[in-house]
Amino acid sequence: MSVDKIISHLHSYPPRYGPEWGSGGIFGLKYYKKMLYYTVAFDAEAHFIKDYDEQLYNFRMLGKAPASGGDTYNAVEAVDDFLYFGGWVHAPAIYKGGKISFKNKYSHVHEYNIEDDSLRLLWKDSIHHSTKWAGEVSDIIYDPYEDRLLIARQDGDEHLGVYAIDRDTGDEKKLTDSPSLKGDILHDSAFFTSGDSFSKGIQKVMCFDLIEKKWTEFPVNNIISMDGEDILVNSVGDVASIYNRFFVFTRGGILIGNPLSGENFRAARLFDFFTFQSPMRSNTLYINGGVLIAYNAHHDALYSVKTLEDKVKYTLTNAIVAPTLLIYIAPPMAKIVGAFGARITSMEIVGDKIVIGTSTSPNLGAGDAVPYDTGHRGFSILNINALQNPPPPVSITMPLALISLVMQKTEHYNFGGVPLDGYRNPKLIIYASKSNKLTIYEYDLSLPLTYSHSDSFPILPGKNVIDLSAFSGIVSFSLKNIDAVGKIRIVLE
C-alpha cells in the first residue's frame, strides 16, 4: 500500500466510551513491512492498516466488551514477520459511582502475524483486585541472542520489574524485581530505567548482560546537571541507544552515559520550567542517525482539588508555560523542530513522512475517573525535511511566583535548558518588581557531557530585555533572589 493511501486512513478520534482517568491517545505507532499499526486509548482499539484495508481489534481475547485502555506507553516491537504490541486493558471495564474497578484489568502482549493477518494473545497477567493492578507493559525489547521478548513493568502495584517472554509459548521468566519503565539494547547489554514517575523520578539504570545473564546497577539519583544543580523529579519519558551511549529523556533534562565503557552518567537540563512538562507518555524516534523526542506540555495532571496538597499538585501539573516541543537530538546539537498543543503521544516514520499522534487532554489521577476518554485524539503529518528547516517561533512564559515557590520549597534555583540552534533573534524578557541578578548557563550536548559556562546580568525593577543571540547551544538560568511578582518570557524567533 502506498504511503499516501495509508495516511488517507488516518482520522481524528473525539471523546468516546472508555472508562479511565482523563485521556489516552494514539499509541504504539509502528510502520513495518508496508503495514501501519497503532492503538487508540482509552477506546481499546488496535488498528492495522495493510493491503488497502484497515482492520480493527477490540481486545476480545482478554475479556468481554465493553473494553477500555489499550496502551499508554508505546509498548511495541517488530521481529521477522511478527508485530508485538502490549499495554493494559480493562475487559470488561467496570465503572460505577465515579470510580473504576481494576478487577478486570489485564497487562498484555499480543502477536500479529503480518504475513497471514492472524492475531493471538501471547501473554496476559492480572491480580484481579478492585483498587490495585498488575504492572502494565510499558516497553517491549527484542532479545536477539535468546530470540525472546523483554518487557518492562513499572506502572502498577504488583508484578513489577523486567520479564522475559517466550515468543512461541508465551511463558514468562522474571529477570528482576526492580520496577522499570523503559529499556533498549546497547552493545551486548539491555539497559533499563528504574524509579518512579510522580515523586522521585529515575533512581538507577540497570544493565542486563544478554550473553552472561548478569545484572549491573548504576545509581543516577541526585546527579548534578551541567549547570551545577540537580534536576527536580526527573521522571522518565523514553530512552535511546545512540553514539555507544544510553540516553534517558526525563522531566527537566537528559541523562547520557555508558558506565560499562567507563563513562558515568551525566545530566543536561532541558525544558525544565518547574512544571510537569516532560517527555512522559511519548516515544523516541530514531531518524537520520539521531533521535526525535517530544517534551509534552500536558501529559499527566490532577483535576479534582480536595486538599492543600492537591492544590499544589494541581498548580504544578496544570501550569502551561510552553507548548509541547518536538526536539531533534544530533549531538552536539539539540534543535527544536516543532511546537504543538497539549501532547504528542506517539511518532513513527512512514515513507518520507513523520506521523505524529496527538491528544488535547492529559491522563488524570485516581480521583478523576470518567466513563469516556476526555481528549480529542488525532494525527499530524510532518515531512522528514522538516528536520533541516529553520526552527519554529516559540514563546515561553514563566510566572516569577512559580519560580519563587520552587526556590522557597526545594532550594532549586536553576531552570530552563532552552536550545537556541537555528534561532537568529532569541531573547529573554524579565518583568521584575525588585533588583536581582540573572545567571545564564551555556552548554551543548557534545559527548561526553562536560560543564557549562556562565555569565551574570543585573536585573532592575521593571522590564529587562536580555539578548540571547550572543549565546549558542542550550541555555539555562537562575535568579539570585526571590521575586514573586512579575514574569519571565523567552522569545525564540
Walk me through this protein's architecture.
The chain has 493 residues and is mainly beta. Among the domains are: 1-141 and 342-391, no CATH class; 394-492, Sandwich (Jelly Rolls), CATH 2.60.120. It contains 3 helices and 40 strands. The strands form 11 sheets. Strands 6, 7, 8, 11 and 12 form a 5-stranded antiparallel sheet that branches. A hairpin with a 2-residue loop joins strand 2 (25-32) and strand 3 (35-41). The longest helix has 11 residues, at 308-318. The protein is globular and about 65 Å long. The model has no long low-confidence stretch (mean pLDDT 96). Pfam families: DUF2139. InterPro entries: UCP016666.
SS element count, helices? 3
What is the count of β-strands?
A: 40
Radius of gyration: 22 Å
Strand portion = over 45%
Helix coverage percent:
under 10%
Which of globular, elongated, flat, extended, rod-shaped describes the shape?
globular
How far is the first residue's CA from the last residue's CA? Answer: 40 Å
Mean pLDDT figure: 96
> Low-confidence stretches at least 5 residues in length (pLDDT < 50)?
none
Main beta-sheet strand count, sense and barrel state: 5 strands, antiparallel
Structural class of the helix and strand makeup? Answer: mainly beta
Pfam family, one: DUF2139
